[in-house]
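Handout, page 2. Input:
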Amino acid sequence: MSAADLARLQFAATTGIHWLFVILTMGLVPLVAIMHTRAAFTREPAKRAVRERMTRFWGQLYVINYAVGIVTGLVMEFQFGLSWSGLSKFAGNVFGAPLALETLIAFFAESTFLGMWIFGWGRLRSGVHVTLIWLVALTAYASGYWIMIANGFMQHPVGYEVRDGAAYLTDFGALLTNSSALVALFHITLAALTTGGAFVAGISAWHFLKGTKETELFRGSLRLGLWVAMVTSFFVVIVGEMQRPVIERTQPMKHAVLENSGVAELQAQLVKEHGPGDYVPWQDTMRISMDVMTLIGNTVSTITLIAVVLLWKDRLMRWRWASWVLVAMIPFPFVASAGGWVVREVGRQPWLVYGELTVEDALSQVGTAALAVSCAVFIAIFLALAVTNWALMTRFARRGPEATQLGTVEPLPDDEKQPLAVI
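Output:
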């Protein structure tokens, strides 16, 4: 493999694995926030206790995924300097700020709010405690916004001018409202919520299959997960189609490959505009990824719709096969979202910044042997972290609320509870 192939493989593998953490984090935290809010505003003591246990159970799974996932995120931006110094030199003046803001929000604001929420059980007033988990959710999506702004510039560069071979920002508003970023962010948000809903519904169904005693807890979780997954999986397909006009306008070759029409004509046109080269991305890879993503999206939407109807008629828990289908559905959204990223990233090849900077020009002057070693090490570490994450989550998910350690502190007397100052 060439140096460019190794660098691309390394970034694709590490980004793809990291994305599996991110999409569950973004999808699960709003559900945990809803659970906590319902618990806080429930007056009946018995029902409130059930909803608090529900919050703590799903909150613990969220914390595990976040804690391990943030480790994988630490190395992502370092790869710009390690393998793609040409990208930093050309576009660093433009997307350096969004990347810096994403880092500040994810590693400082979001982590701080989450830490306060974790250690606030029994120590903070209910309203303050609930506000913290909503702030965690807000900062998670704010972090996603800034990373999509940076990625959107690579997909469709706007608000800049090139001076002495480097891009300089000229219109910050254009950068922040880039259609290639905003529509994709909306699509990702819905995909994440579908993932979180399917995750909650699948684990809840598994506990019913095993004859759980926490029937009220998991019935409430199942209902919430199914409704969220059903609604968002329906709209994720619609918003996905909304991206086609944006792609056709900003990346005509990607659109031509997906539509399987006009590829040869566009290749000839791009050769005239940018010089000799192969401007056609991997067609089979893109089409297969698109087909998989579309098929899974429609499948999840259908399954969750049927499950909601069965739940409404009080038949879902009586038919074990239906519960097994929900359990088997857990990985579907992860596979679909990975396919979506393949289409988005592979489709703009051979450009790293579309129309301005190619992959070959962005590559750092690093030897093939060094890249091979770093590629093998990074992929091995990321795979180990992914296995560790899912092993921990599987263990605690199977053990149920009884094994939940989050929030198991002795509450302080009411007169000793204070707001944020106690942390």
